[in-house]
Amino acid sequence: MAVLVGKKAPQFNAQAVINGSEFVDNFSLDQFLGEKHVILFFYPKDFTFVCPTELHAFQEKLEEFESRKTAIVGVSTDTEQSHWGWLQLDKSNGGIKGVTYPLVADTNKTISKNYDVLAGDYFYDDNDMLQASGELVAYRGLFLIDKEGIVRHQIVNDLPLGRNVDEALRMVDALQFNEENGEVCPANWNKGKTGMQATHQGVAEFLEKHVN
């Protein structure tokens, strides 16, 4: 798997659904450069089981992300029409009605491939026929991208394993704490806790105060 941390986030322009119902062409992360951090997350399929729990969980925390000037963007290999249909379906029926952040349609699978979260791949068999190994959907990848378009954190879960949205929010807090204070965040750091200086003396002082 490609490690994108420290590198420019792969660019894309794609169809998307925003505000729960509006189709847009050429959706891009460029709109957030210099303005917002971005949580870009991939999920396998519309109209499934674990996926709606994740999408609703991000929606429930959306105000908290927005208060931190952080945009949430979801991506799957479904079409924009599929996204729209799922967005019209009530939660009680397995739908995601009420989700307002953008859902990008990676129908060519190029976004998932460029972020290296595509499960399966294409290959040619002995008869020179194009085949596919595995199901060509996205793993549950998540990328935290800063205002300069640099990936600062990434995590990828296998298809059955749902993500922890609170952990994504914690990583946003940790990144912004580092950007604002110049201090680093120790293990199990949460917003409101102290950081430490990235020096031997700073580490020693932190351990003396906080570790028995």
From TrEMBL:
Family the UniProt entry places it in: Belongs to the peroxiredoxin family. AhpC/Prx1 subfamily.
Keyword set, alphabetical order: Oxidoreductase
One Pfam family it belongs to: 1-cysPrx_C
Name the UniProt record assigns to this protein: Thioredoxin peroxidase
Transmembrane segments: none
Keyword match Oxidoreductase: yes
Function: Thiol-specific peroxidase that catalyzes the reduction of hydrogen peroxide and organic hydroperoxides to water and alcohols, respectively. Plays a role in cell protection against oxidative stress by detoxifying peroxides.
